[in-house]
């Protein structure tokens, strides 16, 4: 009897843990055919991560995640594709906030994205600008929507801890990757490829990107940071590669920001212009904070990214700069 009871309990335990992985297959061979349906099936939170495993396919849907402790894991980075076509200028004509402006919209905590391609295809699909009726425009009640306008593949809201591993994040226009939470946002990217227009990687809060590639199609800067809420906020890019159109500019800022680039490489197409402050009415409290170590450009280095890490707060060594260093005591997840 005891052995039988043990077997029943073990079976129940196995089933309970097996249910932590939900299978999405657009061809109908999983638990769900859409990612959103899989998300909707889960409780709001859990003590352990719930894995939504997404089989290869093109998932043409807009996804919202307000729940916590969820992993979206694709079967193959290049063949598991989540895509939508959204121009922010058009979207905001009928809405008062950004919830839903991106292909993937996040507000939950402890979210992990793995082995996925996430695309906002508006700029790839639409080559010409257009004029549309716009209820929220208080002047002409119309809006010009351009190919190179804001097009978010990923947008976070209240999310505090986000990991993005081995993913492609693509748009033609600006703000492709928008992990925004200046108060408490902590964002970790590893082995990712990001593409877009102006400010297409634009974290607010604390961000760490390692072994990532960046490609700038158009616009006045590739990267941007908002670290205006706390002096310790920063964006760290380690062992990353930057490329783009001939004359692309590395980055800019118009709120307090703090940039660390360690062991990064730049293509010869990069312009000879430092990360620059845009003319702004914002109060800048902490000055120009750009720190480099062992960064090099194909075809020759520029003087503005010569080693100056020793001038940064507390003069950290390059080897000590990692995810733990970036997030400090707020997120001790990494070894």
Identify the strand order in the major beta sheet.
Answer: 1-2-5-8-13-16-18-21-24-27
Average pLDDT, to the nearest integer?
93
Overall 3D form:
globular
Q: Largest sheet at a glance?
A: 10 strands, parallel
Distance between the termini: 45 Å
> DSSP strand (E) fraction?
25-35%
Q: Please report the total strand number as a whole number.
A: 28
Return the structural class: mainly beta
Give the helix tally: 5
The low-confidence runs, each spanning 5 or more residues with pLDDT under 50, are 1-19
Radius of gyration: 21 Å
Give an overview of the whole structure:
This protein has a ten-stranded parallel beta sheet. The protein has a nine-stranded parallel beta sheet with strand order 3-6-9-14-17-19-22-25-28. Strands 4-7-12-15 form a four-stranded parallel beta sheet. The protein has five helices and 28 strands. The model is unreliable at 1-19 (pLDDT under 50). The protein has helices at 2-18, 35-40, 88-91, 122-125, 323-327; strands spanning 21-24, 50-54, 57-59, 63-65, 70-74, 80-84, 104-106, 111-114, 117-120, 130-133, 142-145, 154-156, 161-165, 168-170, 177-179, 186-190, 193-196, 206-210, 213-216, 223-224, 235-238, 241-244, 251-253, 259-262, 265-266, 276-277, 290-293, 296-297. It is mostly beta strands and 335 residues long. The longest helix has 17 residues, at 2-18. It is globular. Strand 1, helix 2 and strand 2 (50-54) form a beta-alpha-beta unit.
């Amino acid at each position: 009897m005891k052995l039988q009871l043990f077997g029943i309990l073990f079976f129940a335990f196995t089933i309970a843990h097996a249910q932590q992985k939900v299978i999405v297959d657009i061809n109908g061979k999983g638990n769900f055919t859409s990612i959103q349906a899989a998300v909707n099936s889960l409780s709001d939170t859990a003590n352990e991560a719930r894995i939504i495993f997404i089989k290869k396919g093109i998932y043409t849907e807009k996804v919202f995640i307000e729940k916590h402790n969820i992993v979206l894991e694709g079967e193959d980075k290049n063949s598991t594709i989540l895509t939508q076509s959204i121009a922010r200028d058009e979207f905001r004509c009928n809405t008062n906030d950004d919830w839903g402006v991106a292909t993937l919209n996040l507000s939950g905590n402890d979210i992990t994205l793995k082995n996925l391609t996430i695309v906002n295809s508006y700029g790839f699909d639409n080559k010409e600008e257009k004029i549309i009726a716009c209820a929220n425009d208080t002047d002409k009640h119309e809006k010009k929507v351009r190919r190179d306008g804001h097009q978010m593949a990923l947008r976070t809201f209240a999310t505090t801890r986000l990991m993005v591993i081995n993913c492609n994040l693509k748009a033609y226009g600006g703000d492709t990757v928008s992990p925004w939470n200046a108060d408490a946002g902590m964002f970790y990217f590893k082995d990712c490829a990001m593409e877009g227009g102006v400010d297409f990687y634009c974290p607010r809060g604390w961000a760490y990107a390692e072994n990532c590639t960046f490609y700038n199609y158009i616009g006045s800067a590739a990267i941007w940071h908002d670290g205006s809420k706390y002096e310790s906020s920063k964006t760290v890019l380690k062992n990353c590669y930057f490329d783009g159109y001939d004359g692309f500019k590395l980055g800019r800022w118009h709120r307090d920001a703090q940039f660390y680039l360690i062991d990064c490489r730049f293509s010869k197409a990069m312009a000879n212009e430092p990360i620059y402050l845009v003319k702004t009415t914002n109060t800048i409290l902490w000055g120009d904070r750009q720190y480099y170590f062992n960064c090099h450009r194909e075809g020759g280095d520029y003087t503005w990214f010569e080693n100056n890490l020793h001038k940064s707060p507390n003069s950290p060594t390059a080897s000590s700069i990692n995810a733990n260093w970036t997030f400090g005591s707020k997120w001790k997840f990494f070894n």
